[in-house]
Amino acid sequence: MFEFISIEHYHALLQKETITCEQAVHFYLQQIDKNKYLNVFIEVFEEEALERAKELDLKRKSGATPKKLHGVVIAIKDVICYKNHQVSAASDILKGFISLYSATAVERLLEEDAIIIGRTNCDEFAMGSTNENSAYGKVLNAKDRTRTPGGSSGGSAVAIQANFCMLSLGSDTGGSVRQPADFCGIAGLKPSYGKISRHGLIAYASSFDQIGIFGKNISDISKVLDVISGPDEFDSTVSHKKTETGFVPLKEKKKFRFAYFPEALDHPSLDTEISATIKNFIKELEEDGNIVSPFSFELLDYIVPAYYVLTTAEASSNLSRYDGIRFGHRTSKPGIDIDELYKQSRTEGFGKEVKRRIMLGSFVLSAGYYDAYYTRALKVRRLLVEKINEVLTQFDFIIIPTAPTTAFKLGEKTKDPVSMYLADIYTVLANLTGIPAVSIPLFQHSNGMPFGLQIMTKQYQEALLLQIVDYLMNKHAKS
Ligand code: GLN
Q1: Distance from residue 173's CA to the centre of ligand 1 (Å)
Q2: Residue ranges of domains in the chain, CATH in brackets
Q3: In the annotation, is 176 catalytic?
Q4: Per-residue pLDDT band at 245 (split at 50, 70, 90)
Q5: What is this structure's pTM?
Q6: Fewer CB atoms inside 10 A, N or C side of the chain?
Q7: How far is CA 98 from the centre of its chain?
């Protein structure tokens, strides 16, 4: 049986001819087929992935130097465009739509000889925290089928958790990579805003959206980040700062300054076992010689409201293009005028949560309420950026939980959208302020489910962030 440990290890196996790319793809296709009930993929690019694997095997055997992601099998969330392949944002409104171009991230993966194995299920237009808002049905958590994998990138998370590919891409607007990573016991990176081009990523809230990476280990995540990040003529918000230059593990002895927010660890919504475990972890960091200090963060309860005002406002504007004329499903109802056609097409095409957010966003942007909601939320965002800058001039990293609980039971949150929104309390901060964050899988709850915590740092400090995360993961594994 093929066991994937890391890209480096896989490349060594290929060189020794212990395995071929074709065999690796075969293995994953079998895994996917055996576990269809998890509902991870909306579409598997079976024949194409095998074909590409065979080509890569020939290329390698002919003596060509393998590229950085030679034969690496990757799944992409169904909000990322891949030329001549369908992309639907898990929505009926885009069913059957074929991408006219590839996202920059996908193009760069392919240039480095990665193999795209399929597109993964997610919440419709990446709106949700459980993967239950998909037009293609819910995804199940492979660790416990009565639970959700989290969302919105639940399919991409389970694809790693259940061993369906080596790495996967998701998108993270308010936690959609980190929270499902946490619920599934794997690592998930949300890079800084402006690190990876959003060209070809279906927009939810453009000033928050980032492509994120799921993987089993940090050096692999770092390799993929290295390949897909960096300036792009199609997205002017991408930073021109120098990108990664390969992953170097941290030397044992280096000590850092960590801040934690007491308000976050003592928040009434946080599971007491998670709180106690993270507090204990903080103590261990201190015993290890690091400086670990509390930093008061009174703004915590304003984070979720600000996030939902701003993201729904942006979503209502971004999703206006799906009107049955420019993009998306067009109603077949006869004898209606143009206004009715827009209305009917959107009524038929969008799901309940997406409609709720479009209405909320239109409301907060409406003339009478703009200042009361939208302008205020922008002010909160500004205050948050200032606060985070203050914290990160005094400290190297912030430690914060990823989610208040372990994976929700299926159906647990669907009746009460506000309670689902409130569970985003720990993740949306990084998107509101543009900083990078990683959810690290570290612990197991007494209910049997995994959970971890997040480490955040200054914008564009991914190299340092990934080093410390790798160090903490390895140290924990040894303890
Ligand atoms: N759960 C959050 C939301 O529903 C985050 C979604 C995301 O990051 N795409 O908006």
Answers
A1: 6
A2: 7-228 (3.90.1300.10)
A3: yes
A4: low
A5: 0.97
A6: N
A7: 23
